[in-house]
Specification:
2 domains, single chain, Diaminopimelate Epimerase, Chain A, domain 1, 5 strands, alpha/beta, five-stranded mixed β-sheet
Length: 200
């Protein structure tokens, strides 16, 4: 991939639900990876460890446990990243994010599947520490509560309709009052005849 390349395929496991059967590639040393993330939350090439540790510390300051795994070799199936994250998460808990040259997978009890998948948009996978920070910031950042927004919009529409109705009724009453006040005293009302004029 060229410099600055972003995510192509992503897969995140929902926090709850029945997990699908996992497949771990034989060339992935799960024991070594598990030992690394149990130590400091990071399993990655040496030149990337410090940057990833900073993201782990940042997440910890926000009250979350997160582990990052960087696989230098692209996996033949993007589902492998999710499977690796799922198996590791069952051992260490918290959120586990697995980054590779061509994809990313995650497993978390804190964030919904939607949040995890949305957080994988436009990650710079050629720079794993940066991609880790990008994903974490998007995942843990404030998200829109569309249910609340919909309820607010409904209330605004209803209130607006009520106000418009009240104003219309008020204008009609004012118009009727003005008409009544402008009519001459003793004038015959509509549809009547002044019979007094015909008397001798």
């Amino acid at each position: 991939m060229s410099p600055g390349a972003t995510t192509q395929n992503v897969l995140a496991l929902p926090a709850m639900g029945v997990p699908s059967p996992s497949i771990i590639p034989e060339d992935v040393d799960m024991s070594a990876i598990l030992a690394d993330i149990q130590e400091d939350g990071v399993a990655a090439p040496a030149d990337q460890v410090d940057g990833l540790r900073q993201v782990v510390a940042h997440a910890k300051s926000e009250g979350y446990d997160v582990s990052f795994v960087v696989l230098p070799t692209a996996q033949p199936k993007f589902t492998y990243y999710r499977d690796i994250a799922t198996e590791l998460q069952s051992e260490v808990g918290g959120t586990v994010i697995v980054l590779g040259p061509n994809s990313v997978g995650s497993s978390s009890p804190y964030f919904s599947r939607v949040q995890q998948e949305e957080a994988t948009d436009n990650l710079t996978l050629t720079n794993p520490p940066l991609a880790a920070r990008q994903m974490w910031d998007q995942m843990s950042g404030p998200s829109l509560n569309w249910t609340a927004i919909s309820l607010v919009l409904i209330v605004v529409v209803v209130v607006g309709a009520v106000i418009a109705r009240l104003r219309s009724t008020r204008r009609a009453r004012i118009a009727d009052r003005d008409t009544a006040e402008s009519a001459p005293e003793g004038a015959a009302g509509p549809g009547t005849t002044d019979l007094a004029r015909d008397l001798p």
